[in-house]
Design goal:
membrane; transmembrane; 57% helix; mainly alpha; rod-shaped
Length: 58
Amino acid sequence: MPPTLLAQGQSALAEAFGSTYLVALILIVACIVPALFLPRRKIASATGQPAELALALH
């Protein structure tokens, strides 16, 4: 195998590896930013009683 072809293959693999990490970083940021806007405490109900959990019945 010629050395130039091997070098081109290594360069292409490095580019693909870097692109994968860039996409992963963008997806992580896209998930964390909206999560920062979520409330940190439970919202109290108007009656002062703890709110009951909604149950999904099948």
